[in-house]
């Protein structure tokens, strides 16, 4: 009750955790490239063994970054709806895919087979990997570092018309105003509540028009203030000689050390290994060590 | 002091929306020269054209007619825009709307980056500028974690990093509390004195004006008066027509000189006033005789100069009681902060209660407990006999009876038409159409907005002062018994301030509304309130009548709060043994009276 207006309290997504580990001290560019390679590697996994290997490697990176496991799992809670959806879709539609292998369960048109089980587990672990990789990067690099990283990575493409600086600036300004707007939203909510408004209360889901109308007293002031702020920000930027990205220099310079190159190289080798290794299926290995009949 | 003019403005006209059928003439035939190293303050009521003029100084606006030259560059020449803007740095009103980056030092670097300076030079300039504004220790901080005064200092650093020769402050102190204002002004004036930066400040605050080399007063798009502060403030009657305030201490000197022409009326500072009185007593020169009409208001005060209630009225019954209230922000997270601790406070029926404290003192948190927006983590808040936080309490009923008006309430308007916005509260109460209409009418008229004339006006086409009154009407339409106002006059010009206070006081005097005022404006609070609480560091550090509170200026100063200039002057005279009365002067009239008594006791 007392916290009904505190908006920033429950936001943990994208939270930076300053443990100052080796991973934290990497060049953000190296981190971004490595993360991209890992994501790519995950997308190349088809069977259970490489995906499990990926999972273990990612947990190792988390351990090196000194990120508590409980923090990683918070991201999973956010991803639960997607996980549930993937599970349901695979469960329903993959039962009749062939070759099915052994059939574990059959009821009406629902069927659980060895093949569908494998697909489901590979799918779920892959999504967990994606969530963990993205969480790890925001937990070990500040958004500002990431913005600079992306800007400098994209800058060679500027001559082909990629507006690297503009994208970075837009990103930076958006991040800069998130807390400002959260505060503003809180203030507007409190002001309208003081005028006896039921914010968000009593809205019936079968009357979305009424529910939307109840939010107008919050949304309209927020937008009007946002436009006013934008106008003033433009003036302030122009007053400080801003005329776009051409001819600008950069205060922040990113320095890469040998360690950064090593990390990128390792990621690349790992990606190639995952993507090209002739992974045997789990069943073949199990059969090799004498477990049969699954 | 200066040798060469750095800015020359010749016959400048500016028209907004020239192609439409309603062109707005913002500037008319302005001619002005500003010398290198000068400190110029531009005064004028809202809409007088002073901000438009400022935006011509660095080519953010271009003349409709006439010329503006900066160091010999014409602002109309697009090739010189970079030179002009890096020569004339500008800081605006709202610090939040000027900061681009998520880290202080990167924001300061934004200007030099735009100039295309080499990286090592940018680093040097960022260090230098942050040091100038005393922000070096916070260079890696995220801007949203800074106070408003600190943010404005970052903005100044961001401008300094371009090494400008002229610094323009466009109402840069309007949104700051006294402490923040002091910080920003000290830095700006230091830059002017020590680094020779030409300083041009647009402001409503007279304390800023008295230190200037030259005052320029604008009205209706024209320069109507200019000269040294002393010369300008001597024309008090003229200033009144132009809706410009005169510093309180100057008002006092003028009131005295009205009774005795030999007393100089052109005093600008408290120190000057005290030394004048000292000199007169030492020279056995008679002080101005005691006035028979000492209570007559000089009429230039920001607050209506009402005789403060001298005898305490029988205390009304307590409406709101806060007992040992403690509240934490972000409770249950690693970022938990104690906002207030052990607060005891009560609001009594029919009084005007003041709450003083600077930003971050916890006064807003206290305020939000008064209508159950917040519920204490420890302690108890009782409103009309009901303890908040219990499930049986009807929060809506409490909020209806205690109207809370936030800072800058115009930022919360949302309806297209004024009438609809005012009706939002009554409609939430599910009143009948006729009742809603009647309440909207009463509320609008209580703040001087005619129902027929304003109900169908577009909300967002109104002036700032009018919008604030609409927002106030929106709360009054709930017909509350207590009105809680957070900084009701912040950001308004002197005339708007006076008008708004008049309406609020009339509600108190005629309708018997209980008022709770939260403000940093000591002159206003000293004159209006029956009782005052001083909040600092999340605790009530002082409480009592204005006389009791302001009789301890040392304690107030320790807490980072100011006192009214006349109070300060009389107190200093008392400290020096020149005034024997222990009475505390809160208004010009009271100060005149006390000084009159001194005269009577003084052997001549």
Give a description of the structure.
- With 294 residues, chain A is mostly helical.
- Chain A is 64% helix and 3% strand.
- Chain A is built from nine helices and two strands, in the order H-H-H-E-E-H-H-H-H-H-H.
- A two-stranded antiparallel sheet of chain A has the order 1-2.
- Chain A is globular and about 75 Å long.
- Chain B has 604 residues and is an alpha/beta fold.
- Chain B has three domains: 236 residues, Rossmann fold (3-Layer(aba) Sandwich), CATH 3.40.50; 98 residues, no CATH class; 227 residues, Rossmann fold.
- Chain B contains 23 helices and 20 strands.
The total tally of domains of chain B equals 3
Q: Which class do the helix and strand fractions of chain A yield? A: mainly alpha
The coarse overall form of chain B would be globular
> Whole-number average pLDDT of chain B?
87
Summarize the topology.
The complex is a heterodimer of chains A (294) and B (604).
Chain A: H1 28-44, H2 48-64, H3 69-93, E1 103-107, E2 110-113, H4 114-140, H5 143-154, H6 164-194, H7 208-239, H8 258-276, H9 282-288
Antiparallel strand pairs in A: 1-2
Helix pairs in contact in A: 1-4, 1-8, 2-4, 3-4, 5-6, 6-7
Chain B: E1 5-16, E2 24-35, E3 39-43, H1 50-56, E4 65-70, E5 73-74, H2 81-87, E6 88-91, H3 104-114, H4 119-132, H5 148-160, E7 166-170, H6 178-194, E8 198-202, H7 206-209, E9 214-219, E10 222-227, H8 229-233, H9 236-241, H10 248-259, H11 270-282, E11 318-329, E12 337-348, E13 352-356, H12 363-369, E14 378-383, E15 386-387, H13 395-401, E16 402-405, H14 418-428, H15 433-446, H16 451-454, H17 464-476, E17 482-486, H18 494-511, E18 514-518, H19 522-528, E19 531-536, E20 539-544, H20 546-550, H21 553-558, H22 565-575, H23 588-601
Parallel strand pairs in B: 3-8, 3-9, 6-7, 7-8, 13-18, 13-19, 16-17, 17-18
Antiparallel strand pairs in B: 1-2, 1-4, 4-5, 9-10, 11-12, 11-14, 14-15, 19-20
């Amino acid at each position: 009750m007392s916290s009904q207006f505190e908006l920033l309290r429950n936001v943990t997504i994208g939270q930076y955790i300053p443990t100052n580990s080796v991973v934290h001290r990497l060049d953000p560019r190296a981190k971004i490239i490595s993360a991209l390679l890992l994501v790519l590697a995950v997308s190349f996994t088809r069977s259970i063994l490489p995906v499990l290997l990926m999972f273990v490697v990612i947990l190792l990176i988390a351990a090196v970054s000194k990120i508590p496991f409980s923090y990683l799992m918070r991201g999973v809670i956010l991803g639960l709806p997607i996980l549930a959806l993937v599970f349901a879709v695979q469960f329903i539609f993959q039962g009749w895919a062939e070759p099915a292998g052994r059939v574990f369960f059959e009821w009406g048109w629902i069927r659980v087979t060895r093949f569908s089980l494998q697909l489901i587990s590979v799918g779920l672990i892959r999504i967990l990997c994606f969530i963990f990789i993205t969480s790890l990067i925001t937990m070990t690099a500040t958004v500002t570092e990431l913005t600079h990283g992306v800007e400098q990575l994209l800058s060679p493409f500027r001559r082909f018309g990629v507006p690297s600086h503009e994208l970075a600036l837009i990103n930076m300004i958006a991040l800069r105003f998130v807390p400002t707007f959260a505060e503003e939203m809180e203030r507007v909510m409190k002001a309208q509540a003081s005028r006896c408004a039921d914010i968000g209360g009593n809205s019936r889901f079968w009357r979305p028009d009424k529910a939307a109308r109840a939010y107008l007293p919050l949304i309209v002031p927020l937008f009007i203030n946002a436009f006013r702020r934008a106008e003033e920000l433009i003036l302030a930027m122009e007053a400080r000689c801003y005329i776009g990205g051409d001819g600008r220099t950069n205060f922040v310079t990113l320095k890469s050390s040998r360690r950064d190159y090593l990390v990128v190289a390792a990621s690349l080798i790992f990606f190639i290994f995952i993507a090209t290794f002739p992974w045997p299926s789990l069943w073949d290995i199990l059969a090799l060590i004498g477990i049969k009949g699954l | 002091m200066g040798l060469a003019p750095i800015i020359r403005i010749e016959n400048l006209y500016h028209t907004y929306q020239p192609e439409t059928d309603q062109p707005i003439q913002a500037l008319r035939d302005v001619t002005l020269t500003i010398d290198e190293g000068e400190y110029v303050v531009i005064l004028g009521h809202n809409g007088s054209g002073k901000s438009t003029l400022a935006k011509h100084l660095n080519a953010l606006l271009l003349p409709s007619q006439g010329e503006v030259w900066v160091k010999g560059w014409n602002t109309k020449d697009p090739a010189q825009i970079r030179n002009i803007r890096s020569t004339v740095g500008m800081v605006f009103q709202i610090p939040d709307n000027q900061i681009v980056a998520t880290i202080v030092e990167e924001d300061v670097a934004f200007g030099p980056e735009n100039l295309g300076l080499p990286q090592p030079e940018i680093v040097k300039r960022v260090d230098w500028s942050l040091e100038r504004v005393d922000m070096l220790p916070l260079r890696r901080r995220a801007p949203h974690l800074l106070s408003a005064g600190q943010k404005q200092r970052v903005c100044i650093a961001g401008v300094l990093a371009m090494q400008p020769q002229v610094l323009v402050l466009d109402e840069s102190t309007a949104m700051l509390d006294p402490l923040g204002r002091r910080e920003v002004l000290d830095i700006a004036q230091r830059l002017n004195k020590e680094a020779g930066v030409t300083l041009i400040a647009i402001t409503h605050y007279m304390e800023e004006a008295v230190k200037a080399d030259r005052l320029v007063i604008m009205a209706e798009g024209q320069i109507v008066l200019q000269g040294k502060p002393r010369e300008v403030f001597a024309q008090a009657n003229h200033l009144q027509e132009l809706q410009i305030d005169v510093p309180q201490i100057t008002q006092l000197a003028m009131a005295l000189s009205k009774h005795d022409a030999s007393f100089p009326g052109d005093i600008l500072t408290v120190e000057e006033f005290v030394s004048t009185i000292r000199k007169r007593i030492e020279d056995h020169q008679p002080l101005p005789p005691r006035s028979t009409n000492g209570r007559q208001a000089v009429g230039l005060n920001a607050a209506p100069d009402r005789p403060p209630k001298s005898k305490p009225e029988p205390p009304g019954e307590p409406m709101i009681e806060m007992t040992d209230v403690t509240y934490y922000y972000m409770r249950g997270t690693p970022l938990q902060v104690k906002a207030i601790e052990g607060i005891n406070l009560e609001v009594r029926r029919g009084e005007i209660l003041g709450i003083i404290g600077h930003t971050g003192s916890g006064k807003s948190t206290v305020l939000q407990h008064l209508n159950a927006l917040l519920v204490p983590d420890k302690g108890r808040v009782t409103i009309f006999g009901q303890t908040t936080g219990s499930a049986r309490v009807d929060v809506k009923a409490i909020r209806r009876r205690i109207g809370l008006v936030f800072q800058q309430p115009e930022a919360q308007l949302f309806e297209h038409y004024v009438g609809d916005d005012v009706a939002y509260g009554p409609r939430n109460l599910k009143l009948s159409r006729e009742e809603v209409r009647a309440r909207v009418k009463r509320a609008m008229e209580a703040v001087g907005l005619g129902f027929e004339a304003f109900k169908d006006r577009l909300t967002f086409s109104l002036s700032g002062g009018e919008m604030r009154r609409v927002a106030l009407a929106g709360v009054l339409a709930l017909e509350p018994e207590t009105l809680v106002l957070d900084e009701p006059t912040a950001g308004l010009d002197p005339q708007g301030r006076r008008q708004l206070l008049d309406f609020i006081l009339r509600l108190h005097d005629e309708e018997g509304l209980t008022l709770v005022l939260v403000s940093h404006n000591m002159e206003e609070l000293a004159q209006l309130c029956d009782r005052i609480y001083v909040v600092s560091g999340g605790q009530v550090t002082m409480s009592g009548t204005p006389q009791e509170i302001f009789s301890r200026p040392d304690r107030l100063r320790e807490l980072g709060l100011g006192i009214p200039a006349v109070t300060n002057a009389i107190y200093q005279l008392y400290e020096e043994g020149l005034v024997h009365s222990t009475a505390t002067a809160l208004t010009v009239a009271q100060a005149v009276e006390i000084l009159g008594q001194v005269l009577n006791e003084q052997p001549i």
